[in-house]
Amino acid sequence: MIGIFLTLATITSWLVDLTIMPTTAGFRVPWVPCALFQRWPFCWWIVVFIDHFSRSVVGHAVFLKEPTAAEVLRALDGVVRRAGRAPKYIITDSGAQIRHEYVAWCKGLGVKPRFGAIGQYGSIAVVERAIKTLKEEGLRRIAVPLRQTEMVGEVEAFVGWTNVNRPHMSLVGATPSEVHRRARPARDGPRFEPRPRYPVPRGEKLRAAKGAVFRLTLGHHEGRPHLPATRSAHATISCGTTGRIPGKVCGITTTTVPGSSRRSRHRRSVKADWLQAASNIQGARAWAKTVAFIPSPGGGSAPDASPRRGAPAVAGHRRNAATTAAGPVGMVACLT
């Protein structure tokens, strides 16, 4: 069964590779027959097609057992048909499916086949890294299904999420879909600047006034808790500059009291407390940067609203990370 994700970019080169993914039955055990057969119901065979320029997954297929050359070429035909044309190059390893039939197929479509070095680690590193992401951030976070239709659905959901929602480091923060469609990356749009004293280049537009704290709302792609997606972001409260010096603790923005000579002593405990609280939120570990602190409406009325001198002003930091803490500083993490 084949799934396709295509956009409107000019096609230059694709990378193709096969991998196996153990099911809930598994084959990584020392007894027979699980230790012998790399096929369903012990594992799935997945073939992945990557656009080299944009790093987007342009196609994939799921098989019950190791596919033959004819099955791989049938999957390639489906991707080419959806794209409207074949790429100029296809880069693969020298697997059992890449033989005379594959070379003849490439010659018939005017494709120039390219092969990774035999026994050379990382010769097709781009597609291998994409497969690692598929497993670590997608399939290994769920109970891998035994039904083929359900497995295809899980792979399609991850492909849609990684193409559209996941920024890519090699693309300097853009998503594969943005590069694939030649669209303007969201990273180049107006941004929030929560640091009230931080200099902003002349002519740069901000989404809110300097010092404003924003609320970031997260959702789940197609209802999958392990695939977080940004739903909205908007400014909530404008912070003044009096008596507040922005700081950071392991990616979590805090507000500290001026003249805190002992701030470094408290960083480790504050970090541990917040990470423990954030662990109760699915996906918060990978999206810790989306957590922001905002002044609470109650001001200093709470019993813990007056932190001792030199300590980070993070009142109520042992409470649930999904609620607004009492005191002068609160935490906002909206998950829908």
Query: Total domains, how many?
Result: 2
- Write down the CATH class of the largest domain: Alpha Beta
* Shape estimate: globular
- Mean pLDDT equals 73
- State the strand order across the main sheet: 1-4-3-2-5-6
The biggest beta sheet is recorded as:
6 strands, mixed
**Oligomeric nature of the chains:** single chain
The counted number of beta strands is 13
CATH superfamily of the largest domain: Ribonuclease H-like superfamily/Ribonuclease H
**What series of H and E elements makes up the topology?**
EEEEHEHEHHHEEEEHEEE
Low-confidence regions: 1-10, 238-336
Named at the architecture level, the CATH assignment of the largest domain is 2-Layer Sandwich
What is the CA-CA span between the terminal residues?
32 Å
Number of helices: 6
* Strand-pairing-aware structural class: alpha/beta
Topology:
Blueprint: E1 2-4, E2 13-22, E3 43-51, E4 57-63, H1 69-83, E5 89-92, H2 100-109, E6 112-115, H3 125-137, H4 148-164, H5 176-180, E7 212-220, E8 228-238, E9 245-249, E10 252-256, H6 263-278, E11 292-294, E12 330-332, E13 334-335
Parallel strand pairs: 2-5, 5-6, 7-13
Antiparallel strand pairs: 1-4, 2-3, 3-4, 7-8, 9-10, 11-12
